[in-house]
């Protein structure tokens, strides 16, 4: 009875979480004469998106999905963005563990700001996955404080283990990152503002034809996106969302029937 009650409680909580889940959107301001538009993904889109950007949707004024392509621009340094990264430092025996919140950004590298003179080996990982190892140093005017992340996937957190041996732990003042944001390209059919929505883990990456020929689209207008806004997934103009209210009502009815059955059975057994 207790196990069944716990299972019912778990299913109830799960249903409530699903029912009141949220996602995000930004308004895209349409400008220019070309039918094709483009804009760069912003830091808050990377941080709040799910499934490695697979949940991104472009929505027109009528609430319909608009096909889009995401271009990766790793080698275009002119579009480089420098960002301050939050981090936490822990000591583990003779190692300094640096935990960096990388926010799923497509980081090319991270740069440490350290005052000391030193030379230390490091290992780079995320959870149990090992990615690279190398050496960081700062001696006189010579320094090598950049850790390359070119072959590291987008991660929520990056862990760097700095091996101190018998030396004092490094005093890390700041951690910055460098990345070139991905670019979204899509076609408009009206002048009204569009939206980019994201943050719904129930959505999978769509497959659009534009991905196959985006390289040949030369005539584009650069457009801007607005501030991050949060919206209930039950709102209109959000595509392919499930109506959880119907499931919720069915679930509550089923739970009520099950509980009544157990209560009746318990009463009958007590009378015996």
Written description of the protein model:
This protein is α+β, with helices and mostly antiparallel strands and 272 residues long. It folds into two domains: 23-73 and 182-241, no CATH class; 78-179, Jelly Rolls (Sandwich), CATH 2.60.120. It is flat and about 65 Å long. It has helices spanning 2-19, 43-48, 210-213, 244-271, and strands spanning 22-29, 36-40, 57-59, 65-66, 68-71, 81-84, 87-92, 95-101, 107-114, 118-126, 129-139, 142-144, 146-148, 157-163, 172-179, 183-187, 194-198, 221-222, 224-225, 229-232. α1 runs antiparallel to α4 (244-271). Residues 10-21 and 235-245 have low confidence and may be disordered.
Topology:
Layout: H1 2-19, E1 22-29, E2 36-40, H2 43-48, E3 57-59, E4 65-66, E5 68-71, E6 81-84, E7 87-92, E8 95-101, E9 107-114, E10 118-126, E11 129-139, E12 142-144, E13 146-148, E14 157-163, E15 172-179, E16 183-187, E17 194-198, H3 210-213, E18 221-222, E19 224-225, E20 229-232, H4 244-271
Parallel strand pairs: 2-18
Antiparallel strand pairs: 1-17, 1-19, 1-20, 2-16, 3-4, 3-17, 5-16, 6-15, 7-8, 8-14, 9-13, 9-15, 10-11, 10-14, 11-12
Helix pairs in contact: 1-4
């Amino acid at each position: 009875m207790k196990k069944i009650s716990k299972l019912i409680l778990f299913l109830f909580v799960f249903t409530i979480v699903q029912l009141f889940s949220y996602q995000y959107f930004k308004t895209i301001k349409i400008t220019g004469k070309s039918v094709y538009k483009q804009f760069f993904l912003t830091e808050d889109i990377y941080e709040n998106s799910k499934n490695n950007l697979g949940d991104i949707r472009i929505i027109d004024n009528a609430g319909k999905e608009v096909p889009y392509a995401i271009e990766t621009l790793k080698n275009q340094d002119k579009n480089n963005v420098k960002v301050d990264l939050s981090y936490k430092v822990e000591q583990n025996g003779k190692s300094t563990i640096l935990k960096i919140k990388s926010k799923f950004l497509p980081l090319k590298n991270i740069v440490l700001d350290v005052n000391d003179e030193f030379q230390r080996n490091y290992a780079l990982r995320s959870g149990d996955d090992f990615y690279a190892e190398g050496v960081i140093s700062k001696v006189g005017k010579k320094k090598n404080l950049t850790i390359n992340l070119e072959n590291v996937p987008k991660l929520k957190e990056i862990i760097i283990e700095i091996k101190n041996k018998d030396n004092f732990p490094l005093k890390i003042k700041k951690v910055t990152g460098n990345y070139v944001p991905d670019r979204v390209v899509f076609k408009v059919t009206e002048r009204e503002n569009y939206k980019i929505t994201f943050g719904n883990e129930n959505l999978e990456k769509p497959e659009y034809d534009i991905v196959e020929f985006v390289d040949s689209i030369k005539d584009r207008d650069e457009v801007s996106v607005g501030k991050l806004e949060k919206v209930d997934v039950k709102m209109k103009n959000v595509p392919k969302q499930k109506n959880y209210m119907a499931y919720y009502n069915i679930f509550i009815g089923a739970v009520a029937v099950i509980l009544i059955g157990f209560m009746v059975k318990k009463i009958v057994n007590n009378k015996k």
